[in-house]
Amino acid sequence: MNDTTVQAAGCVLWRRSPVHGGLEICLVHRPKYDDWSHPKGKLKRGEGALAGALREVAEETGYAADPGPELPTMHYLANGRPKQVRYWAAEATTGHFTPTAEVDRILWLSPGSARGRLTQPRDRDLVDALGHPIEQT
After folding, report:
1. Alpha-carbon distances of 87 from 17, 66, 92, rounded to whole Å
2. 6-135 in CATH: which number?
């Protein structure tokens, strides 16, 4: 990996439905890209990946999160530059969503619905990876 790789981190944010107790995954909508994705963002200088992932969750969703297992790392090109995004499973604890210019909506969806709503196919792999560690909780 060279210094031109963009370092980012995020979480597959989940909770138990307050209605039926089933697993729900939080997706964020970014109006700039008109896409649905997991909360994630670039790391600040000197910031650890997990700390950055939790900061991005808080900034984009308004929720604090309890991190769980690390999920697969994604590698792809973004604006012609290599990007590496480390992800963790994280359970939403407390918080409330407030729309911003960066994220104007969030949705809590079942894993199947989340897979269908995600814009990037690579993000669907993270939903599948989440299912395994969460089933043991």
Report:
1. 22, 13, 15
2. 3.90.79.10
